[in-house]
From TrEMBL:
This is 2-keto-4-pentenoate hydratase/2-oxohepta-3-ene-1,7-dioic acid hydratase in catechol pathway. It comes from Streptomyces candidus. GO terms for molecular function: acetylpyruvate hydrolase activity; isomerase activity; metal ion binding. The lineage of its organism: Bacteria, Bacillati, Actinomycetota, Actinomycetes, Kitasatosporales. Keywords: Metal-binding. Residues 1-58 form the Rv2993c-like N-terminal domain.
Amino acid sequence: MRIARFSIDGNVAFGAVEGDGTVDSGDLVLDIIKGIPYADFELSGVKVPLSKVRLLPPVLPSKVVGIGRNYAEHAAELGNEVPDLPLAFFKPSTSVIGPGDSIAYPSFSSELHHEAELAVVIGRMCREVPADRVKDVIFGYTAANDVTARDVQQREKQWARAKGFDTSCPLGPWVETDLDPADLTIQCTVNGEQRQLGRTSDMIRSVGDLISHLSEAMTLLPGDVILTGTPAGVGPLNVGDEVAVTIEGIGTLTNKVIKRG
């Protein structure tokens, strides 16, 4: 099931996406969910065309935990070695934007990069999750763009500013709850030109391994997001560019880069 978060007439709700089209096709409708979707929920039967609503970030996470260098070719293209353990970092909730929202080019950087990623959405509060129980705590999956100020990342030892600035974490267009993440195509285009093309089967550490590892240290809450790393092909973004992340079985997340006001 595809679960979207949206606004209509000043109200915010979740809905189940019905139909076989894309975000822009005009063929999709939303069946509004009663309450929030993390626990058992009911569909209201009240349906609205997706074309009549504004899609929002599919979740509002208390935290976004990113994983660096989880694809060997990406680590190599930046001259880095694969770490012995998962390399984790945080992106604050204020970095999250949704499909169609603008990425504001930060004033303190002159080298902004796209990073297409599979994002895992947590569905229940959990801690110290064994690898064989990880499926029980996952709500679903969405597309993400771990937008990075590369020059700042290389200059500063901590990645907080480079990866945590406002609008640096586009998520969407919705959460797919029924998906096997083991071998999915990940693609990124900029102005229609392909930049990244990889498969989740190339991840060094699996979704299960990552969540088990992270939950040893911290409690994960419903709606929290885990970014699983990016394949090779990262590259520059400029003001005016349109960047799209497409993940097999989920859909396409599109955002435009603007000058920060």
